[in-house]
Amino acid sequence: MRVLLAVALAVASSMALGQNWVGLLKNGPAERFDEEDLRLFMDTAQKALAEGKDNETLSWENPKTRAHGDITVLRSFAWKTNPCKEVRIRNQAQGRKGDVNFGMCQVDGKWRLLSSSQMPKK
Questions:
Q1: From CA 50, how far away is CA 105, in angstroms rounded?
Q2: CA separation for the pair 11, 18 (Å, rounded)
Q3: Tens-binned pLDDT, residue by residue, of the chain (122 aa)
Q4: CA–CA distance from 15 to each of 56, 69, 80, 97, 113 (Å)?
Q5: Alpha-carbon gap, residue 46 to 27, rounded angstroms
Q6: Prediction pTM value
Q7: How far apart, in whole angstroms, are the C-alpha atoms of residue 77 and residue 81?
Q8: Alpha-carbon distance 32 to 120, whole Å?
Q9: Hey, what's the torsion of the CAs at 89, 91, 97, 99, to 10 degrees?
Q10: Kind and range of the H or E element at 103?
Q11: 3-class state of residue 6 by DSSP
């Protein structure tokens, strides 16, 4: 689940690509997102990765579906000279809740998932 969510963040924010990965997220809130939920989530995720500061939380909500969530930049760091962020993502949709932390680094202009073994100690 963690890897699939990170892959979702790493893809471009177009709706067609977003819809492809939502089907892969079994038993998580993103599986229940409609197109507007997905757009709001992806826009927030991209903003958190591009502009978010340490300990900053960005929230999203779709009043029509009541789906909502937040993305918190836990810390910024470098890995192999690439800018990276550890983030916590919390989402809720149609009674499902999800909470996951992971690290992502910007490599060649794209955000890529770090494995737990690649994450530097805090």
A1: 11
A2: 8
A3: 444 455 455 443 333 334 333 433 556 898 889 999 989 998 999 999 999 999 999 999 999 999 999 999 999 999 999 999 999 999 999 999 988 888 889 999 888 888 777 878 87
A4: 26, 18, 32, 22, 21
A5: 23
A6: 0.77
A7: 9
A8: 33
A9: 0
A10: strand 96-107
A11: helix
State how far the Cα of 81 lies from the Cα of 11, in Å rounded to an integer.
22
HSE-up (13 A, CA, CB side) for residue 106: 11
User: 57 forms bridges with which residues in the sheet?
Assistant: 72
Strands (E), the chain: 56-61, 68-79, 82-93, 96-107, 110-113
DSSP β-bridge partners for residue 88: 72, 101
> Are the C-beta atoms of residues 9 and 25 closer than 8 Å to each other?
no
- Fill in the amino acid letter for 11: V
Structure tokens that stand for 86 in this block: 């550890």
| Distance in angstroms between the alpha carbons of the first and the last residue of the chain | 23
Residue 121 tokens, joined: 């100690």
